[in-house]
Specification:
The chain is of the alpha+beta class and about 375 residues long. About 25% of the residues lie in helices and about 25% in strands. It has two domains: about 10-205, HIT-like (HIT family, subunit A), CATH 3.30.428.10; about 210-370, HIT-like (HIT family, subunit A), CATH 3.30.428.10.
Length: about 375
């Protein structure tokens, strides 16, 4: 699942234990020439809420607010401009400097206009046949690097690995909040024309399971019930055996174009060792993952120059937030964390709900192997 790009920040900062957030900063401030009045936003009882479509079972996140204006301005993510962002949630520093100082290596801040809010409790409500869930959760921004023009294609792999460790830390911390049911990490490469071109990722913690992950969980559980095996492990085994859609094999990961790819050059990175949680990766696996993601990025850019990439990290939901005692009983055996990468180009073609892919995954995999 890839969340639509939208700009950033909330006017409050979440504490490190993932359970509280305090007010911080001015009530109104400017980002890229846009002045945002926090008081006006806080006057809305619930800025966001989930609504369930009773005809499809899909959830929609409704944002109670009008469109935001855009304008030029200095990048608020660059070192030295920390005072222009909310107080940081977490950061890596090399010299033990205080929080919100300018010597950070990777920095995490709350979103300025959050998709989900950390305050309060979850409210589930039935309105006749309609279901709604309050937008209780977390919306964070991972500022990946000090360099405004940093690219995963050319960074040292160790610096990509540092970002991945921060992903792990944020997922682990957010799952300490018993009201967060699922966490999704997503990343979109920015173009020079983007309002904020500084490299960043988004971490979203939600009170419900993201639709894409929910379908994966259901499918994986059904497969395990029938065959007593992990679906993803079987897919990796067959893809390696067939070879035609495999892009790369590393000591810990298989990179391949899925058999039923929904978009041209859709690429998955799946650990060969069965793990249902990304948070469980070892140091050796994390180093290999950084190297693998860099190589995959280079291949995709080689095959599709100037096309930005979108990445989504799918990991298991928060087992501490079960709605039923029998929920996710085989989760550790049937689910398999993974990363999905797609070129973030023109909107995909869809006919009656069917994705139309004009580039067969076998062709895409061949081009990606040749792009090394």
């Amino acid at each position: 699942m890839l969340l639509a790009g939208r700009d950033l920040f909330c006017g409050q900062a979440r504490s490190l234990n993932g359970l509280k957030r305090r007010n911080g900063g001015d009530r109104s401030w400017s980002l890229g020439g846009e002045r945002v009045d926090t008081d006006a936003r806080m006057a809305i009882p619930s800025r966001t809420e989930f609504r369930k479509d009773p005809t499809s079972g899909r959830w929609v996140l409704v944002v109670n607010g009008g469109p935001r204006s855009k304008g030029p301005g200095a990048c608020p993510f660059c070192p030295g401009r920390e005072a222009e962002t909310p107080a940081e949630v977490a950061a890596y520093r090399s010299n033990g400097q205080p929080p919100n100082s300018s010597d950070w290596l990777v920095r995490v801040i709350p979103e300025r206009a959050p998709l989900l809010q950390i305050e309060g409790n979850i409210h589930r409500q039935g309105l006749g046949i309609f279901d709604t869930v309050s937008g209780r959760g977390a919306s964070e921004i991972v500022i990946e690097h000090r360099d405004h023009a940093a690219s995963w294609d050319v960074l040292p792999a160790a610096e990509i690995e540092r970002v991945l460790w921060m992903y792990r830390d944020r997922v682990t911390d957010l799952y300490r909040d018993a009201q967060i049911r699922a966490v999704l990490v997503s990343r979109r490469e920015r173009t020079p024309a983007a309002r904020i071109a500084h490299p960043f990722s988004r971490v979203i913690g939600a009170p419900i399971i993201f639709d894409d992950i929910r379908r994966e969980l259901v499918t994986a559980r059904h497969y395990f019930t029938y065959k007593q095996r992990c679906l993803y492990c079987d897919i990796i085994r067959q893809e390696r055996q067939d070879g035609i859609r495999v892009v790369q094999e590393t000591p810990h990961f298989t990179v391949y174009a899925p058999y039923a790819s929904r978009r041209p050059f859709e690429t998955w990175v799946v650990p060969t060792i069965h793990r249902h949680r990304f948070e469980q990766v070892s140091s050796q696996e994390m180093a290999d993952l950084a190297w693998t993601l860099q190589g995959t990025s280079r291949r995709l850019h080689g095959a599709l120059p100037d096309v930005p990439l979108a990445l989504a990290l799918h990991t298991a939901p928060n087992e501490a937030m079960r709605l039923r005692d029998d929920e996710w009983r085989t989760l550790s055996e049937d689910y398999h964390w993974h990363i999905e990468i797609v070129p973030d180009g023109p909107a995909r073609e869809v006919v009656g709900g069917f994705a139309v892919n004009p580039v067969p995954p076998e062709v895409a995999a061949t081009q990606l192997r040749d792009a090394a």
